[in-house]
Structures are given as structure tokens and as C-alpha cells.
Amino acid sequence: MQTQSRSIVNANGGAATGFGSAPAVDEQYYEAVVRELARGHELTGELQAELLRVLRGQGQAEATAAFILGEVSRAFTVCTSIMGGSSTPAVTAPADGTLAAATAGEGARRAKEDGVPRKRTVTPSPYSDGYQWRKYGQKRIIGTNFPRCYYRCGYHRERGCRATKQVQEEQHSNAGGPRMYLVIYGHEHTCHRASPTAAVGLLDFSAVGLPRQQEQGGVVQLSKEELEQQVLVSSLACVLQGSQCYSGGGSQEGSSSQGRTGAGEDGGSAPAVPVETSLDVMDYYDVTDTL
DNA sequence: TGGATTTGACCTGC
DNA sequence: GCAGGTCAAATCCA
């Protein structure tokens, strides 16, 4: 049991990168989310301008506001891209397959999949797309520096879902920036696992640099930055999920930090732990006061 | 101990 | 024959 949650590539973290294989209804949902994210981003910009105008010359307050709003803005950008929005870094690969690692040597052999249409995506968080994945193979691809990992839907067996995806680290990922991965989706999901609520986990915290909580004696202690980011993440989770807020602490995702490939810690069954940090303005001020 | 991951072998298409 | 995709035994881990 624990193993299952441990090994299934976390879906919760789900990026839109993945919704290429999501059912149409989910696609509509994602589009709506992307739209709202864009709107939120836009409003954040306006708020930022307004706040900075009001706080001009107020030293610390101005700097804090600028920082926080900048982070919010950045978070919106990251979320939008993760959700498959227009902003980078998540970019749907061109159909011509010009992506570096993407196509080395494949091409003709592609037809093995019975002509199944494949969606290619480049994303910094390949393991979080709203579905649960199980790794079934890995292969070195000629002409590339990184192996390609093969994943099947976690419900392949029990529900006969044929969805597959391949994940390969992009060769040209710049040293300084986040690693980018080419993700190729195979069959459509028939398990209908991904529900809109799964979007909560769409935030790939490790990808956006969210520090993990430090647990001490059972008490979660957060640093200032962590607390700030938790608030930001929580607010974004609110945006994504509506009324319910979830903690970013359950950082899922399996960015192969342990060599265990991308298989993440916990998948859809992820403990999307409800948190009291449901963010409203007062909460935020409480937090900043505490800081 | 059960389930997931790893990895070499096998299969298939070009 | 080569290379990508998949299988399955071995291994790992909670």
C-alpha cells in the first residue's frame, strides 16, 4: 500500500503538460483554469503597480510588497505554463519534432504505436500532470545524453487504461535554469482518474523552488521564506481549486532526486492535506506580522 | 512481505 | 542490423 503511493509518479503535481491526454471535459476545465490564471496574473500586475504607487518611499513596506507581488506574479507564470498556458517554460513542442532530444533517431519508428497521435511537451515538471504513472522501462537513446523513461498509467492493470508517456531530459537545458524535460504522451486515459480536483497538486513545488517544510519533533517549522512561499502556494492552490485550499507541504513530484527515476512519492492518492492556511487577506497579514 | 523500480533481454519496425 | 519500445526477473524499500 505504502509502496503504491510511494512509487506511482505523482500525478497530483499535475501539469498541463499532461492534459494532452486528458479527457475532453478535463481539457475544458484546464482551459478555464489557464484563463483564470491569466486573469489573476493580469490583476496582480495591476495590483502591483497600484501598491507600489501607494507605498512609494516607504522603504521596507515597499520592498516587501514588491517582492511578494513579484513572487505572486512569478507563481502565476509558472502555474500558467505548467497548465499548458501560453507562457513559457512549458511549451508544446512543434509538430515537426525539431526538439533536440526529442527526435534523435525516432521518426520512422514512431509508427509502432499504431498511429496513435502523440502530444509532445517540454516542461520542467514532467512527473506532475494530474495522473498517476508507473514506470515500466528506461532506455538510452542514441544521440542523447539522457535516458528516456517509459511510464504507463497507474491504473493500467486495474482499469485497463492504455495511457503512456515518455519522459526524457532535454539536452539543451541550460545549466543555470530549470531542467526541462520532453514528455511524449501516448494513448488517451480511459481511467478517468484525473478530476478537476487533481489540479490542486498541479503545482510542482520542487520545480518552482519551493523549499520543503522542516519537521522538528512533529511540529512543522517554517522559515520566513518558506512561510511566505507557503502562503503564495496556498493562495495559488485556492485559485486552482476554488474554495478548498491545500498545503504545498505535500510536495509531491518525483523529480528523480533519489535516482529512482521520476517515480514520485505519491500519486493521486497524495495526501492532499487540507490546510488552515486558506488564504485571505487577513491571514496574510497575520503571517507577515509573525514574520 | 508486497509492491514498485531497475535493467538486461526480447520483440518489432525500418 | 540497428534502434526504439516493452517485458519480466532481480532488486530495493517501507
TrEMBL record:
This is Uncharacterized protein. It comes from Avena sativa. The lineage of its organism: Eukaryota, Viridiplantae, Streptophyta, Embryophyta, Tracheophyta.
